[in-house]
Amino acid sequence: MAQKKPKFYVVWQGRKPGVYDSWDEAKAQTDGFAKPLFKSFDSKPAALKAFKEKPHVHIGQAPKATGKQGKLTELVGLPIQDSLVVDAAWNTATGDMEYQGIYLATRQKLFLMGPYADGTNNIGEFLAIVHALALLHQKNSNIPVYSDSRTAIGWVTRKKANTKLEETSRNAELFELLERAETWLKTHRFANPVLKWETTVWGENPADFGRK
């Protein structure tokens, strides 16, 4: 098995800003911190150089906002540009569901799956997060994954899709994917933070299908 390439983590805003050699050390400085700013780098020299620079050079510039919106942005912070954002779409007329994931910094689409018959939006959101985690695991990347579904994030945390959808001959493939996703969560360790996309502050999820 190929050895994972080491990563180095810059924490600009956290309990103790600095450059860290492991995600566990960086996470201790950022997890639960009100407005953390951090990013991974492939080499220590690159990380040390980035730490001396302004964070938004590497993770995106803050949008200018005033009034109530500006106060919310200050409270919540900004989305991490070096991240993967996922979303799902469910057709109320046909019951078909699909999901996709994009790289936030460039808006490049990394995957698009479906449509799957007789699904639900929550199932799509759950599968999208797990798909993103599995893809990043293959790439040895610990960047965050954003979803705007608290339900799906909770399912991922519990490693179980608590759906009330009944299995039928039409959605058997979907239930097989759910089982595989749950198994993957139970058999793999990952350091990627799974974070809530704050729609009311940042606007529509960039992975949204635009069909509302």
UniProtKB/TrEMBL annotation:
Q: Which family does it belong to?
A: Belongs to the RNase H family.
At which positions is Mg(2+) 2 bound?
125, 148
EC number(s): the record gives 3.1.26.4
Question: Cofactor stoichiometry and binding?
Answer: Binds 2 metal ions per subunit. Manganese or magnesium.
Molecular functions (GO terms): metal ion binding; nucleic acid binding; RNA-DNA hybrid ribonuclease activity
Q: Please give an example of a GO cellular component term from this record.
A: cytoplasm
What name is this protein filed under?
A: Ribonuclease H
List the keywords (alphabetical).
Answer: Cytoplasm, Endonuclease, Hydrolase, Magnesium, Manganese, Metal-binding, Nuclease
User: What is an example of a Pfam family matching this protein?
Assistant: Cauli_VI
Superkingdom as given in the UniProt entry: Bacteria
What this protein catalyses is: Endonucleolytic cleavage to 5'-phosphomonoester
Q: Could you tell me which residue ranges the RNase H type-1 domain spans?
A: 78-212
Which cofactor names does the annotation list?
Mn(2+); Mg(2+)
Please give the chief subcellular localization of this protein: cytoplasm
